[in-house]
Amino acid sequence: MLMLACTTVPTRADAERLADTAITDSLAVCVQIEGPITSVYRWDAKVEHKHEIRLLFKYLKEQGSALESKMLALHPYATPEWIVVEAAYVSEKYLSWARINPHS
Predict the structure, then answer these.
(1) How many domains does the chain have?
(2) Is 0.85 topped by the overall pTM?
């Protein structure tokens, strides 16, 4: 089963550090880095507009706990976004690659 997790960080350097760690430690099969994006949210009773970098982690379900623990421990934000969804459909060829990839 392929899972997707999303988070945002303040800089591309932060994003690359998290992505490299996830791949090097075999916690994800792929990490996509997008941005900059603009996030609009309320923090300390103020509306914030921040430029951020978004990461999309693709991983197998059994990697989930270790990936989340590691990414949240390394994350630069005090309250990091960590949203996880299960992929409703994944092509068999890509899923086969994902099953082999973490250990190669």
Answers:
(1) 1
(2) yes
